[in-house]
Amino acid sequence: MSTHEAKTEPVADPHARLERAFIEEYLHERGYSLKELHNLPEALAHQLMTEASTYASSKLTEVEARARFVDKVHDAMPRQ
Known about the structure:
The protein is mainly alpha-helical. It has one domain. The chain contains two helices and no strands. The chain has helices spanning 16-29, 42-76. Helix 1 (16-29) packs across helix 2.
C-alpha cells in the first residue's frame, strides 16, 4: 500500500448487532448460548442456528416495518 492510499475498514451491516442479539435471545429462551453450540452434536447445532436465524430475520423484518410506519406517520404530519 502506498502512503497515498487511505486505510478503510469494511462498512459493517447496521443490523448485524441486532441480528446477533435476536439469535442470542432465541438460543437463550431454549436454554443454549452461542458459545456452547460448538459442544452440541452438529445436527442439533445446525438446527438451532437455522431456527435462530429464521427468528432473527423475522424480528428484523418487524423492526424495519415499524420504522417505515413511523417514517410514514411523520411524513404525513403537517409541518408547523
